[in-house]
Amino acid sequence: MTDSGAAVVAALRDLSDPDLLEVINDALSSLDDKDSLLVAKEVGASLARLEAVRYRALSQLSMLRDGARSVTQEVALGLSLVDGAAGSLVATGVALTSRLPRTLSLMDRGLLSGLGAQKVAEATSWLSVEDSLKADVVLESRLPNKNSIQVRRAANYVATKTDPAGAVRRTTERRKRRRLSVVQGGAGVASIEVVDGPAEKITAAYQRINREAWALRKQGEARTMDQLRADVAVDLLLGGEGGVSERTEVFLYMDLFTYLGLNDDPVEMAGHGHIPADLARHIATGPDTVLRRIITDPVGGQIQDLSRTRYRPDAATAEFVRVRDRECRRPGCSRAAQDCELDHSIPWQFQGETNVADLVTYCRRDHRLKDEPGWVYRLEPDGTLRVTTPTGQTYFSKPPPLHDPRAEPPAA
Questions:
Q1: DSSP code of 309?
Q2: Which of 202, 230, 364, 385 sits at a 20 to 30 Å CA gap from 223?
């Protein structure tokens, strides 16, 4: 080992000095709930900084070996990982040090986890170095303190916006690689997965399975929803009816200019994230597609009205709220709104009104969480949802605008 290597290893080992860890662990038993969460958050930030060191080390190893494929196997052996995980770590390290320096800097500051950095590297892997650097600049302000799903979505959106034509080619290639994967497990179980299937079809398939599972549950089925979804899916694959068939829906958010092909802005699919404009136009021009006109605030981009035909008022209200919210409103949850329940921000028994200003969407899990002791949900007049946790942490959620905010027109 070189002197530099010895110094680095010694410094890292000092961070896990047994005596220091013993003092820390002894103190943990006297912490209250707020301090416990703060300690866990600080450990997460420290882990992010250490993972940044590991990514730099793996990048250095790859550089010294001229990017040889055998580096993956060596890392797998040294870190006791499978080859796929080792290869992803090496590729992420190389990407962070060569074309995503600002993302790496976020890790140094404890603002982005190693998993989040990996999502960014994967989402931008197809970009040129020049475009990666451009995307990195934009993402620097969008990634801090986001979970892995939010990071992946942000990175996919920025990458698609940076190189729309490349995004179309990438999507086409990924869809060509679609396959069915079977993994045999122990104790008489196995898993089946459609890998890289068309997002709109996979989303619609899940919607059908989920709705038919709910229909069976309402008929008195004692199986859990997870069990029902699995059983319905297998039954449908084997030629059965599964349950009570219902129409399935995929929600796309696309402005008129994108629909007409006048621009190629990424389009959002609720519950999935952003897809290339060409794919969205292909889906939107299908024979069974139903279009809705959405009127937005021209400056902020927030939805103000949704065109409709002859719906009952409650059905129209429910549709508006689901279109507006897109996904479960609990910060960080990505469950599509059409799978969510509607809830009053002010309980109806306390004069809460059944209108779009008082209703929000929550998935079943987060709807229950809302009523747990210590959780406080408040819907602000501008539609921002303020969530306060039992430890006093506050988080915010607001439906994303349908288009990027625009400058107000000059005064006449």
A1: S
A2: 202
Residue with tokens 């396959």: 179
Cβ 300 vs Cβ 400: under 8 Å: no
Q: Which amino acid belongs to residue 293?
A: R
∠ Cα 272 153 369 (to 5°): 70
Would you say 363 and 372 are in contact if contact means Cβ atoms under 8 Å apart? no
DSSP 125: T
CA 73/CA 158 separation, integer angstroms: 32
| pLDDT at residue 150, rounded to an integer | 92
Judge contact between 393 and 37, C-beta under 8 A: yes
Inter-helix orientation angle 114-123/33-64, to 10°: 50
Question: What would the two tokens of residue 43 be?
Answer: 């450990």
Helix (H) or strand (E) holding 257: helix 256-259
Q: Which residues contact 332 (CB under 8 A, 6 or more apart)?
A: 147, 149, 150, 395
Cα separations in angstroms, 93 against 155, 310, 405: 17, 56, 35
Would you state the pLDDT for residue 293?
Answer: 59
> Which value, in Å, is the radius of gyration of the alpha carbons in the chain?
24
Tokens for 3? 């002197």
The ranges of the chain with pLDDT < 70 are 3, 5, 8-12, 14, 16, 186-187, 240-250, 288, 290-314, 345-357, 402-412
Cβ(316)–Cβ(359) under 8 Å? no
